[in-house]
Amino acid sequence: MIVILLILCQIVLLMKYILQDLKVNINNNIYLKDPESSDLGKKIVEFSILLINDIGFDSFTFKKLGAKIGSNESSIYRYFENKHKLLLYLTSWYWGWLEYQLVFTTNSISDAKEKLTKAIEIITRATKEDSAFSHINEVLLNKIVINEYSKSYLTKEVDNENKEGYFSIYKRLINRIKDMIIEVDNTYRYPTSLASTVAEGALHQHFLRDHFSSLTDCDDQITPTTYFIDLVFNSLNHTTNG
Hints:
Oligomer: single chain
Number of helices: 12
């Protein structure tokens, strides 16, 4: 037991050190200047998360953000063309960070069912703060994704932005889950739909739990993770029971 605990501690420390060097590669058309390249850019990201979480994306403006960080509004426009692009940046970073956790955690798992279960857990669980990124509060960013992510793609420009690759990280994450579903049951006819249902549905179930509790069975005892593991493996029932 002691040996196992020591191994687990080493894995946690290793992941922490690797995450410190992690850079999520976001489509450079989303920003004008990489915010990770300067202290001001990191400050823009840090305080935009705090401000959007506090007042909501609709009320958020670069003018308010500038006042928050003690900088001219024009300095923010040197990094992002508008607040829509900033939201795309934040959500892309979130999905990239989640993808990295999924790949790192499942890479050494050989059993297909166990790997898929772990992937569902990572995608659907409540987010905990990661100290590796001092300027990004992942807990608040997760709340922003739950509440605001749909605003990044429910726009007239979505098709052009999709062609430009703005959603490539999110789509890559869905495809990773799809591949794991196929690995469990290659006869299942709807692996992509099921994978995207898990990712999108998790956000929706967290939202319902927080705001419309009568519309979901998820509560303090039943988590979205519990629900989606049940949903996925019942959809693949003829294989998992075989």
